[in-house]
Design goal:
globular, single chain, 5 helices, Rossmann fold, alpha/beta
Amino acid sequence: MSNGTTSSPIVLALDDSLVIHQMIKRALEPGYQVITAANAVDALSIIYHQRISVLLLDVQMPDVNGLEFCRTVRSLPQFQHLPVIMVTSQDSPFDRVKGHLAGATEYLIKPFDAEQLREAVRKFIGS
């Protein structure tokens, strides 16, 4: 990656659906570098080893749900200001409150369209 040019901002998408991974990549590449993870352990490892600009986070996952993962990330001082966008099909006002209480910066409802996702990410990266 060190070809002398500035690299694209990195977006990490944590979702257990490979279909969602592909939708996110199609929506955000080539403007952003998209890294995907299917579970919380992989995502935490990526966060520690890459400079993530935005974290996209599914709420419903088999191992650690997105709310728990968001709280974990927020408990680590170096990630307290990392923008976290919940990407979920759970759309009740109570779900939104739970997301924000867990530390989510933004809440995006599935199914989303590519422009909605780009707009949400652009808000935090400003490109």
